[in-house]
Write a structure and sequence with these properties.
By secondary structure, the chain is mostly beta strands. It has one domain (4-320): Tachylectin-2, Chain A, CATH 2.115.10. The protein is built from 1 helix and 22 strands. The protein has one helix at residues 4-11; strands at 14-18, 22-23, 34-38, 41-45, 54-58, 69-70, 72-74, 84-91, 94-102, 116-123, 130-132, 153-161, 166-173, 187-192, 205-209, 221-227, 233-241, 245-252, 262-263, 281-289, 292-299, 310-320. Strands 1, 2, 20, 21 and 22 form a 5-stranded antiparallel β-sheet that branches. Strand 3 and strand 4 form a beta hairpin. The longest helix is centred in the N-terminal third of the chain and has 8 residues, at 4-11. The chain is globular, with a radius of gyration of 18 Å. The model is unreliable at 1-12 (pLDDT under 50).
């Protein structure tokens, strides 16, 4: 293992090991990828780049991607743009797309265009079309997750807990109306989803708070989780400035979903220089075969005059040492 991965191995007697990454062949800008494995092939969703949610398909997660086409054709009235970091899961015959979006100023309870919230859309097919399907606790369609004080909720990630046989939803607390350099309490939070997959049925709890100093620069976002061979959940998250100082960290969260997480070491596990990449973030996992997960993420150089984020894939295995 190279760089920070070596440091991670020294801190734990066993760990997840990432294989050398491969370029996906998907052109920039493609950020915050999420990959769904189905019986008919693979589907990759990403942050909007001229689409509400762009989706591509392939018979292999390693390349040969089609599209993109637009997956999300019918957003609810509260969601007006900035469709970021989608995550799609299949439950029965329904596909659920979790997404973050800007909240319209016309939406009740002090919404404004600087606020972001997490919603859900549904489809009978992995490529869509997805339409908003959230429940309406106030008498009209509402987000699945929304933070108080106009702080935003972004980067949703649905995780299935085999122990409880329930789905959970993670998200990151955004910067709010003061902008991303505001002094907001950035964190990763989560809840257990109701069996309808459209709302929380437990009170959201914080599992990781951002460190204001060090490489995180006060930011933790884009959560993704794996169940480790040590009988604990491992949280991966992005930190730093996504334009020129991004990296991926790891924390260990115990055996119970939504337990508080403890950082693995003081630095990131996927950082600049790993296999020649930089600004590594937006990580998502998907099953490949027993004992092996796939990983998909974006990497880029500094933004400069455009958005250079492109998608890479890798495989992840648990290693006992």
């Amino acid at each position: 293992m190279a760089g920070a991965l070596v440091a991670a191995t020294l801190l734990l007697s066993s760990c997840f090991v990432f294989a050398a990454p491969s370029p996906s062949g998907i052109p920039a800008p493609t950020a915050d990828p999420s990959l769904l494995a189905t019986a008919s092939g693979y589907y990759l969703y990403a942050t909007n780049a001229g689409f509400r949610v762009p989706v591509r398909s392939s018979s292999s997660y390693a390349g040969g991607w089609s599209g993109p086409s637009e997956a999300f054709t019918g957003p609810p009235s509260w969601a007006v743009g900035n469709f970021w970091a989608p995550d799609v899961v299949q439950v029965g015959s329904t596909y659920y797309l979790y997404y973050s979006a800007s909240v319209t100023s016309a939406w009740p309870y002090n919404g404004n265009n600087d606020e972001h919230a997490v919603g859900v859309a549904c489809s009978s097919a992995p490529a869509g079309p997805f339409t908003g399907c959230s429940v309406a606790p106030y008498g009209f369609p509402a987000p699945v997750a929304r933070e108080g004080g106009l702080l935003g909720a972004i980067d949703p990630e649905a995780v299935f807990d085999y122990g409880t046989q329930r789905w959970f939803l993670l998200w990151s607390v955004d910067w709010g109306p003061g902008g991303r350099r505001a002094n907001s309490p950035r964190a990763i939070k989560g809840c257990r989803l109701a069996t309808n997959m459209k709302q929380c049925d437990t009170t959201p709890v914080e599992i990781l708070h951002a460190a204001n100093g060090g490489w995180e620069l006060g930011t933790v976002e884009n959560p993704a989780m794996l169940w480790g061979g040590d009988g604990q959940w491992h949280l991966y998250y992005s930190g730093g400035n996504y334009e020129n100082a991004y990296a991926t960290g790891e924390a260990v969260c115990g055996a119970a979903m939504l337990s508080p997480c403890t950082r693995l070491g003081s630095g990131p596990v996927l950082a600049d220089g790993w296999n020649g990449l930089s600004n590594i973030g937006g990580l998502d996992f998907f099953p490949v075969y027993w004992g092996v997960y796939g990983a998909v993420f974006h990497s880029s150089g500094d933004f400069g005059s455009g958005d250079p984020r492109t998608v890479y894939t890798s495989t992840v295995t648990w290693q006992n040492s």
